[in-house]
Amino acid sequence: MASVLVVEDDPIIRTSLIQSLSTCGHLVRSAPDGFGALREITQSPPDAVVLDLGLPDIDGADALRMIRGLSRVPVLVATARDDDLEIIRLLNAGADDYLVKPFSGGQLAARLEAVLRRCLPAAAGAPQAQGGGGGLPGSGGSSPMVIGELRIDPLARVVQLAGQDVQLTRREFDLLAFLAEHTGQVVSRQRILSEVWRRAYLDEQTVDVHLSCLRRKLGENAAQPRFLHTVRGVGVKLVCPA
Asked: What are phi and psi of 200, to 5 degrees?
């Protein structure tokens, strides 16, 4: 059972969402606008937020950015906007998943459970990683992963290279941690989209853009890679430099 904040201005839709989630056993609060949601998150942080974009006071995308300035609470965006570029923008801005309206109560409940499993693994009962291979972000592990001079701490969400902090965005960290979980393995872009973005049908260029940013921050480039190696026509892998 999780505490869920529903941010929706339409009272009929808001009531329906509250009923659907309450039936699943969640403790549900609501806010009719963006600033009300920010107050709720500040005063009594929920386990997850269901965020409508068409809010009366501020646009939901702006509300998402403000939420990310306050908290890393999982956010499931509920939107009538189905444009790919808009969806990519929302995911890159920090949304954990999204649903395009109209959707059923069952779809909402299933997506919310998936977000909670990914973002709150301990609360969702996910097993802890075993052995000395390092923590697994999204599966409950908390031990740092060390690949040569690169150190990735999933619990603190901190990356260090040769002892110096590397400042990454949320999605860059998730991508790097995922590749670190599979060190030495070639991972396809489609799998990365499916397991990191949770959207297998997004443009693969989304992955390439984030890889390029990661390489720059790790002091390398595609022509002279140290950690991030592209296997043409197959995918990408993170390796320990020789």
From this structure: -70, -20
- Amino acid at the residue 8: E
- What span, in angstroms and rounded, lies between the C-alpha atoms of 85 and 216? 24
Residues 100 and 153 in one domain: no
Please tell me the distance from the alpha carbon of residue 88 to that of residue 187, in angstroms, as a whole number.
21
Bridge partners (DSSP) of residue 148 are none
For 133-191, what is each residue's pLDDT tens digit?
A: 333 334 344 578 999 999 999 888 899 999 999 998 888 898 999 999 889 999 998 88
Cis bond leading into 154, ω under 30°?
no
The CATH code of the domain that includes 48 is: 3.40.50.2300
Q: What's the pTM value of the predicted model, to 2 decimals?
A: 0.53
Domain that holds residue 191: 145-238
Reported as type and span, the H/E element at residue 99 is: strand 97-100
Q: Would 125 be classed as within a structural domain?
A: no
